[in-house]
Amino acid sequence: MNFPENFLWGGAVAANQLEGAYNEDGKGLSIQDVLPHGLKGPRTAIPTENNLKLEGIDFYHRYKDDIRMFAEMGFKIFRTSIAWSRIFPHGDEEEPNEKGLQFYDDLFDTCRRYGIEPMVTISHYETPLYLAEKYHGWTNRKLIDFYLRYAETIFTRYKDKVKYWLTFNEINSILESPFMSGGIPASREDLSESDLYQAIHHELVASALATKLGHEINPEFQIGCMVLAMPIYPLTPDPSDVICSMEQNHLNEMFLAVHARGEYPGYAKRYFHDHKIYIHMDEDDEQALRNTVDFISFSYYVSVCATADPKKNKRGEGNLLGGVPNPYLKSSEWGWQIDPQGLRYVLNDFWDKYQKPLFIVENGLGAADELVELPDGTRTVYDDYRIDYMREHLKQVGEAIADGVPVMGYTAWGCIDLVSASTAEMRKRYGFIYVDRNNDGSGTLERYRKKSFYWYQHVIETNGQEL
Ligand code: BG6
């Protein structure tokens, strides 16, 4: 496998899924603090004890030891998010919370001390709750200003510590999860398409303006968009299925097209027209959108199918955005269909269309692990299934590189076990490092190296030559 010499190997997490300390050092509440069941809902009025994210894996107090373990694996990059409500507890304040800023200063300094480049997601499913409740989340244009104030604060503060930035995590997931993704306190069914696309428009403008602002603050910044990549294959070669899959792909790819080309593509305008979607745009918005990203990043877990035949159009469980199951693929314990070749396909497809360097910032297998005790008293997990999953995906990354696709790096999702986003549980684990915490909240929070820890260490050591 020919991974480029400067390939950025690492891992990825999000603040709300591992930091804990949900109300320490001046942090305000985020939407996650009232989502004890993840996407399955319902939300609660106030934080409740059954919400595992309130304590997470206590990364807030243990990050130094955790980063040391990442360094032991050889990480070149570590992707995390900044919890917006640590910096602006309500989201609409004029002045940031100094203690929140200090936490991330220390976190990024620790990474740098080990030669690990931090990569920061500015907004990862953790909009301040106040912005959701008082302003109705991203449906309100005011969110653009609040987001930009927050972005300016962190760009300025960390301009010499952080080079890689992502504006919104899985920005297209708002199509299915308006509250988690867009801080909109309404279910998808209760939201008109105009409201939804208005919110999307605000996020796209905010993303483009943040990209502009970031480049002004430090021209060396590399700022990317981040989408949930999920190829939608036609279920059959019936041309109607092919067109159906094309149209469904368009809904997701519109986000990439705007970020990479700086304008809404024709198919989006047609969709708005056909669906009577009216979006209010300010005079300067078109100009704002022209600030395109430096690179495209994405998560990749599943592929799905689409069909025009209503009888066959039965949705599977797959990821945050669903789809018709592919009869050729196996699924994970959580029903996510596993398709390593889809990753090569996505990399080629995005490169062909957008000609921007690509970064795989999430990929991995959520599985229930068994912690076993060795004769010498140490504990581990024999997670060969996770190793197999990643090996097969990395082989396909190698194939895409051989196809000529510029791939900047790969950050494995949940490199240390954390609380799942969709189901808000601990049992669904992704890590190379096991964290002793259970769904009922019990556990010592001790960390243990899994078999995959040593495997990934070797992959990085050999720069992907030995998978
Ligand atoms: C992505 C999110 O959707 O998938 C992460 O960006 C999330 O936040 C990851 O954790 C895996 O999903 P889950 O539901 O298994 O945690």
The profile of the biggest β sheet is:
8 strands, parallel, barrel
Give the strand order, joined by hyphens, for the main sheet. 1-2-3-4-5-7-9-12
* Uncertain segments: none
Q: In what range is the share of β-strand residues?
A: 5-15%
Structural class: alpha/beta
Quick rundown:
This protein is of the alpha/beta class.
How would you sum up this structure, described in words?
- This protein is of the alpha/beta class.
- It has 14 helices and 14 strands.
- It has helices at 15-18, 59-73, 84-87, 98-113, 129-135, 142-157, 178-182, 193-217, 239-261, 266-274, 285-289, 340-354, 384-402, 451-461, and strands spanning 8-12, 77-81, 117-123, 164-168, 222-229, 232-234, 295-300, 304-306, 358-362, 372-373, 379-380, 407-413, 433-435, 447-449.
- It has an eight-stranded parallel barrel, surrounded by five helices.
- A hairpin with a 5-residue loop joins strand 10 and strand 11.
- The longest helix has 25 residues, at 193-217.
- 50% of the residues are buried.
- The mean pLDDT is 97.
- The site of 6-O-phosphono-beta-D-glucopyranose has 16 residues, from loops.
